Amino acid sequence: MTTVLLIGTGPLFAPDVRVFNGQALRTWHFAKPLLAAGHLVDLVVLPVEGQPPPEPGGDILLEREHAGTQYLLVNRTDANDILQTLQQIHDASPYEAIVAVNHNAAVHACRLATRLPLWADLNGYMMGEAQTKGLVYNSDEYLLHFWQRMRIILRRADRFSTVSHKQMYATVGELAAVGRLNRHTASHNFVSTIPNAASEDFLALAPPANTPHSERRFRGRLFPADAFAVLWSGGFNTWTDTRTLAAALSLAMEQEPRIHFVATGGAIPGHDEITYESFVHEMQKTGFLDRCHMLGWVEARDLPALYSECDLGINIDGRNYETLLGARNRLTNMMAIGLPVLTTFGTEISEIIEEHKLGYVVRIGQVEELVGALVKACRSVTDRRLFAARARKFCAEHFSYDATTRPLQHWLASPTLAPDNAEKARLFPQEKHLDRISLNPLEEEQRVASEFDLPRLVEAQRDLNLLRQKRLYRLYKKIFGRS
User: Which residues face 317 on adjacent strands?
Assistant: First the structure.
């Protein structure tokens, strides 16, 4: 068995947690099967970005427990504080490998002074997220910030995992751009696909049809007892097509008075606080906001009842590269609990849903198709039950923690540095930051780019251009012939 430092993002799914996300689900998705396999795992959980520390002013490390497993929660949000804390944890134990789950954790792990083999999980396509955020916020300033973080991971990690096969190929292209596809790594398997697993918290729950009337908490209270409740679960992120969603819901509500929309989550603090408000505004314009029940970020203990009392789960994506290369936890978990789903076609999970007839699938941006699917789902309980039963079985077989993490478990049987990192370690036996070593011109280009402050270089270039316009500079150039 292998001694592993596993760094992930929280907060881990628990009854009292209110703002959690796919990153938190992904952390336990990776940790649970490694623990079950007998690996010696020290789990360290970082706070979600954009949120205050769990206990402001408290100790830097908090001891916590999840599903019988003790772990450490980092009680800081400053990047330097986090890195220093992780370095101290790393140095205190004889680990054999590091597993970093999600980009946020991988960025810190790849900055550690370590020669340990490192697996970096890329939970979603970061540059696709940068592009859609730029669209929503009408600025491309985010591109450099996202790429700088991505470059840190690409230049150091030994193995990578992605949420889809399409993202796997995109990651190979990014590795080529930073010089990692070189003569040393010609036969190295850099990237494996680990799709989002169905959370065991959802797989273990009873299907919606089994909820007794006497135990209902939302139906008959939040929305009418005879309503056809369409559920949106989670944040309204930058890749969401709110106009199509609002238009289709409103038209479907016109045809079917029973249709009500229920949403948990909403704006994503520190990342996207526009998309959610745009959806609310669109529903106000159509006049159907009164049939939308916007719950905000609810406690995790309320989700099982809510899922059980709704009739259809929905996911609507825009046409963008994050959709093409990414994944959707909400779909996997809705299917796991037995809630029939409706989604636009674009993500790899939507292709699986269509191929195996696990739910309703419509084309992106096609309002009439979406209206037709909503109305059809509302009127056909038989179809919904067939989809739900088939999807629940599929998730249990193909999207379990163990089945999805087999590439990682195989690597942990004998974790090793990537061949180019092994060569760097051989050439410079005292260097602990392997990303500081370049074996080829592409790597050197990226190393230089990472070590210089681009805004300052741009400012210096601007000052130089202004200097060249000066009369004395032109005279100097004329006399000495130098530029």
Answer: 240
Q: Where in the chain is the domain with CATH 3.40.50.2000?
A: 3-197+403-451, 200-399
Top CATH class of 3-197+403-451 equals alpha beta
Beta-carbon contacts of 386 under 8 Å, excluding residues fewer than 6 positions away, are: none
Nearest one of 44, 42, 46 to 10, comparing CA atoms: 46
123 CB-near residues (< 8 Å, 6+ apart): 22, 23, 26, 101, 102, 103, 163
- pTM for the model stands at 0.90
Tens of pLDDT, residue by residue over 379-404, are 999 999 999 999 999 999 999 999 99
Q: Above 80 in pLDDT, residue 473? A: no
Say whether pLDDT at 6 is over 80. yes
Rounded to an integer, the average pLDDT of 262-267 is: 90
Tell the burial category of 440 from Cβ atoms under 10 Å away from its Cβ (0-12, 13-18, 19+): middle
Please list the residues that pair with 228 across neighbouring strands.
Answer: 259
Q: What 3-state class would DSSP assign to 71?
A: strand
Q: Supply the CATH classification number for the domain 200-399.
A: 3.40.50.2000
Q: How far apart are CA 216 and CA 210, in angstroms?
A: 11
